[in-house]
Amino acid sequence: MTQAMNLAAFVARLPQARWLRFTAPAAFYALAGRLLPWSWGAAALFGLAGLVLGLGLAPTDLQQGDAYRVIFIHVPAVWMSWVIYVVIASWVGLSLVLNTRLSSMMATALAPTGALMSFIALWTGSLWGKPFWGTWWIWDAHLTVELVLLLLYLGLMVLQASIADPRGNDRAVAVLALVGVVNVPIIYFSVDWWNTLHPGSGIDFTRAPSMSSMMLGGTLLMAAAFWAWSIAVALHRVRSIILESEQGNEWVAELPEARP
Questions:
Q1: Over 60: is that where the pLDDT of 199 sits?
Q2: Minimal CA–CA distance to 180: which of 143, 154, 142?
Q3: Model-wide pTM > 0.85
Q4: How far is CA 104 from CA 11, 112, 222, 234, in A?
Q5: pLDDT winner (highest mean) among 1-10, 97-106, 161-170, 233-242
Q6: Residues 173 and 160 sit within 8 Å (Cβ to Cβ)
Q7: Under 8 Å between Cβ of 88 and 107
Q8: Which of 20, 45, 63, 181 qualifies as a cystine partner to 89, CB 3.0-4.6 A?
Q9: Cα(121)–Cα(131) distance, rounded to whole angstroms?
Q10: Is 175 within 8 Å of 107 (Cβ atoms)?
Q11: Region label for 162, one of left (φ > 0), alpha (ψ between -120 and 50) or beta (otherwise)
Q12: Bridge partners for 65 per DSSP
């Protein structure tokens, strides 16, 4: 027992372990409150700049006309749908290793935003596909695995809401999240692995982009806006979850927003 306590104290003193203090709900609640204004501001700034550049200044595509401009919403939504699921899987993995209460709260906070991003990705993809494929939906490999990702998000949300036992809830969500994360690289490589109608990415950081600099700039600015907005929404939601789950603790009662 003494050796285990000494080992825990040694690990806690390591510089790379200092961030672990933010896995405590009280510490993360305060940190999230400080980050929220910056996240909302960054989302507004990047979003405005991206829309001006993408919708107003970027040239018309020679083959697709102005219909291509849906990519300024579609591409960032697709990216965020992947990233958020990987982040959820990372949080639940951390929960299994360190048994942190914050992990399940973050998974609960992130799942609705990830589901929204998957829905936007599929919806805007249909808007693009109708004039070019002649149909709103086709069982293309890339679209199908993105739909599977949306169903995985919905499955996480159903599990979070349906299991009353907190420990059983956390384990069920962790299993689904860690198993489902395999779908993310499948989505990414589906265009290369199968004979899919979905066009390849115009952005590849290993080679020169196949789109104009204004198109690329608008896409990256909108991606940054989606990142910042997703972070802000997740932080706002997790603060509400923390207040609800920790309402019996003294530190919550001392918060200005908790006073009548």
A1: no
A2: 154
A3: no
A4: 23, 14, 29, 13
A5: 233-242
A6: yes
A7: yes
A8: 181
A9: 17
A10: no
A11: alpha
A12: 61
- What are the sequence ranges of the domains in the chain? 35-246
Three-state SS at 65: strand
Angle at 188 between CA 150 and CA 161, to 5 degrees: 20
What are the tens digits of pLDDT across the range 119-135? 999 998 888 777 666 77
pLDDT at residue 157 greater than cutoff 80: yes
Token representation of residue 218: 């608008």
| Confidence band, pLDDT 50/70/90 cuts, at residue 65 | low
Ordered DSSP codes for 227-248: HHHHHHHHHHHHHHHHHHHTTT
Is pLDDT of 213 > 70?
Answer: yes
- Give long-range contacts, CB 8 A cutoff, 24+ apart: 44-47: 44/225, 45/225, 46/221, 46/222, 46/224, 46/225, 46/228, 47/221, 47/222, 47/225, 47/229
